Amino acid sequence: MVVVGGGFGGISAVRELADAPVEVTLVDRRNFHLFQPLLYQVATGALSDDEIASPLRAMLSHQRNATVLLGDVQKLDLDARRITHVGSDGVADELAYDSLIVSAGAGHSYFGHDEWEAHAPGLKTLEDALNVRGHILGALELAEREPAARDRWLTFVVVGGGPTGVELAGQLGEITRETMPRDFRRIDTRHARIVLIEQTDMILASYGKRLSARAERDLARLGVQVHTQASVVDIQDGLVRIERDGRVEDLAAGTVLWAAGVSASPLARLLGEASGAEVDRAGRVSVAPDLTLPDHPEVFAIGDMVRVRDRAGKIKPLPGIAQPAIQEGGHAARTITARLKGAKPPGEFRYFDKGNLATIGRARAIADLRGVRFGGLPAWLIWLTVHIFFLNGMQNRIIVFMRWTASFVTYGRDARIIFRTSESPDR
Amino acid sequence: MVVVGGGFGGISAVRELADAPVEVTLVDRRNFHLFQPLLYQVATGALSDDEIASPLRAMLSHQRNATVLLGDVQKLDLDARRITHVGSDGVADELAYDSLIVSAGAGHSYFGHDEWEAHAPGLKTLEDALNVRGHILGALELAEREPAARDRWLTFVVVGGGPTGVELAGQLGEITRETMPRDFRRIDTRHARIVLIEQTDMILASYGKRLSARAERDLARLGVQVHTQASVVDIQDGLVRIERDGRVEDLAAGTVLWAAGVSASPLARLLGEASGAEVDRAGRVSVAPDLTLPDHPEVFAIGDMVRVRDRAGKIKPLPGIAQPAIQEGGHAARTITARLKGAKPPGEFRYFDKGNLATIGRARAIADLRGVRFGGLPAWLIWLTVHIFFLNGMQNRIIVFMRWTASFVTYGRDARIIFRTSESPDR
């Protein structure tokens, strides 16, 4: 059988199949599993790229029934039960399956304004994180160089008040208020303006009013201005136009970061076309309660690229975080194993909500653990423990723990390389 | 005063000036100091990029007389005592100096065959290291995918038998013989062919015959074939043509790595043109015994971009490693300080050769410490201690030590991300 995608969902499925009487081939276009929940820490210089990534081969080295292939899946032929994947040299190959689990995740969506991407990078891949890091640190460098454009380079706008946006804005507050002031001679980074823009009437809405207000206070303490009920009308180089209370306002910002929209992997649409399953505006394909596609009980789709229906056909609201994908991967794998053994498959997927955690800088976080909602240091300690625990690989855990401890004591950040990207003029 | 370049030479100069009655501005186009001696370890997945880089601002945070500016120096006006540097946004600015130290390093040279670069990447920058890593790990991935092209993807050619070439070849031996075998299902990476090509009659010539032979034996044990007196005639995609004993041989190699030629920063030529100093074929400018330029006692040039003359006008042979640059930076800074204080400047630069170390994989290295030459475990332990000690930043030291310890015990390598580069099709 074949699993497409080595993210949280795919890896969970492959591991659950370790003792099943089946050969599993995992196909991914990247050679590593990415711990996305800490991506914003790479983007803000707190962690290095390799430290939140684990080579897929190393993760599955000891699982003898698992083969890893590096390839970009471009075709899914559900009738012939065959996928086409392309190597980094452009050579295509086919792979037959009896069962298929597709877990290809999601990318950004600019809500029809793809031209904004060039000016407001998002945060989904490791390259995105290094790109965002270059934008943030590069803006401070330009502020130090150019007195005339100082205010613009010291203005940072984050679009989207979900967990990623809040965490990014909080980190920007920490960088400019705590890490950087001593490092510059001509500017005072503590005067940097950080604006978080949210379209609805509160940030982190899923945590409820009380925690949302707490997060807003924590952000304010780090110098972050939160604009709710504000929508982005236009983004150009160095400029964001927002609309609030019917008024249009222009923000001259050297750095604009996008944490607003999500768009499912193009494979979701391919699955929809091949099976007749519905595809929503965000490109997510609808799957049956047992995570399979219509008329194709051998094909499962899981994670951020799907919406799961209950038995009545209604969409279940599931958050776009790691836990649903992990649990869905396990569910799909157990269904396949049961079928192979002639046992009764588990049937409908039920999400067990272990809770939600978001951090807002140094010793501040909010937690919603099955309805028990709290913030501050206890939430932050739980956040820290959970993230270290779920990180893959003992080396990564030790290094990340060490970096966080050092950063807590010294306010420093050591992973501050600005990489040259294809955009840079001198490469 | 102004220092151009935050490598070993530049940083050494700035630090030596900490207590001098002078304001120092360090200009570099990158925002970090790179520990080049460990670049090959990033290229082979043993270390992560940020772990061998230190932010220049953090390094000089506490040195109150030092300012860091991120800029690409494009013009040097020695008569007006002014340099022009350009920011990442393309905006140029000028900087006046009373004294100037230029330490801009060197890049690759393909000996007039720049078209080879696309097929045989070199190893000078952090981006180079990630690019080389992608080539090496990507070749193994393609070998696993493509039975027909397996032999080609499992053939690695390293051009150049100096320290970088030897270290790269040794690491390739370790990766394919020790790290990877369990991670692949369809190929046996232990059958990979690794060829090291050297034009002269021995590798690591500066260590003498006995140690060179020892290094060759150590490499052979890791599966590396050493071809001496072999020169590269042509490099194309997937093919290296070499000439040995008058015979021409074609090697079908999926990966070719370049560790042969060095070419000084273009700033060396600008200095030569402005001062009348000689510039050699590798682009290095000749400096006086006190490291200054003709008729410009206020301008110093140091490191890999220069050749130093003795009082008789003869070129002193200095190795292209960190030590000469560090010592030259200190010498230039002390000369400037002495002048400012009206004291006698130190005069001629004298290189103190502390010794040379090269490693050839696990517990194997060779050392030449002021004529005392030895190899094996003792040399490796000295190599390890020296490199940890000279690395900048306590976090980096701890992390690198931890990664090496883990790798020594488990044979593993955790920094195995293949980054998408501008070459990759799907970015």
Name some characteristics of this structure:
427 residues, homodimer, 26% strand, 31% helix, disordered C terminus, 4-stranded parallel β-sheet, alpha/beta
Low-confidence stretches of chain A: 423-427
Give the spatial strand order of the biggest sheet of chain A: 5-2-1-9-21-20
Coarse structural class of chain A = alpha/beta
Helical residue percent of chain A? 25-40%
Largest sheet descriptor of chain A: 6 strands, mixed
Greatest interface (CB-CB under 8 A), with counts per chain: A-B, 66 and 66 residues
Give the percentage of residues in beta strands of chain A. 25-35%
Mean pLDDT of chain A: 95
Question: Between the first and last Cα atoms of chain A, what is the distance in angstroms?
Answer: 43 Å
Q: Figure out the total of helices of chain A.
A: 11
Radius of gyration of chain A: 22 Å
Shape of chain A: globular
Total strands of chain A: 25
Q: Classify the oligomer.
A: homodimer
What does this structure look like?
- The structure is a homodimer of 427-residue chains.
- Chain A has 427 residues and is of the alpha/beta class.
- The first copy, chain A, is 31% helix and 26% strand.
- The first copy, chain A, is built from eleven helices and 25 strands.
- In chain A, the strands form eight sheets. A six-stranded mixed sheet of chain A has the order 5-2-1-9-21-20, with helices on both faces.
- In chain A, a hairpin with a 2-residue loop joins β20 and β21.
- The two termini of chain A are 43 Å apart.
- At the A-B interface, β4, β5, α4 and α11 of A face β4, β5, α4 and α11 of B.
